[in-house]
Amino acid sequence: MRRATTKDIPQIVRMLADDPLGSTREVVSDPVDAGYLAAFQAIARDPNQYLAVAEVAGRVVGTLQLTFLPGLSHRGAWRAQIEAVRVDTPARGTGLGRQMIAWAQHEARQRGCRMVQLTSSASRKDAHRFYEGLGFEQSHAGFKLVL
């Protein structure tokens, strides 16, 4: 696992687009859409953001974003939010996803976080089984409002 660079953006976007939900909202283009570049720059400047890629034999095969969140609840505990977890299709089933989540948990502990949380679309039943198998518990109902 390493911090993503601008050179990784095309492969990250391809992985984000490689599922039924992502295929309807992501734009795989050359050159990379300016919105992705602006978002990457904002993430890279923010010390509480870590856009990570998993690299095997020089090839990016996984990604996730780790966000460190301060809060007053739980006596001022920091928490880490894991988002946009993707493993490239050929690398699925190899244990890479488990390794990526373990890495994220380690990073969260290193930053003093007292919990790790994530969200997953209600339609991603396989992902839910994966996270539950790693010890995550479904604890909240999520809501969103598209602006």
UniProtKB/TrEMBL annotation:
Name under which the protein is recorded: GNAT family N-acetyltransferase
Tell me the GO molecular function terms. Answer: acyltransferase activity
> What InterPro entries does this protein map onto?
Acyl_CoA_acyltransferase, Bact_Acetyltransf, GNAT_dom
Domain named N-acetyltransferase: residues: 1-147
Q: Which organism is it from?
A: Tropicibacter oceani
- PANTHER family found in the cross-reference section: AMINOALKYLPHOSPHONATE N-ACETYLTRANSFERASE-RELATED, AMINOALKYLPHOSPHONATE N-ACETYLTRANSFERASE-RELATED-RELATED
Keyword set for this entry? Acyltransferase, Transferase
The top EC class is transferase
Which lineage is the organism of this entry classified under, starting from the top rank? Bacteria, Pseudomonadati, Pseudomonadota, Alphaproteobacteria, Rhodobacterales
Gene3D superfamilies found in the cross-reference section: 3.40.630.30
Report the PROSITE patterns cross-referenced here.
Answer: GNAT (PS51186)
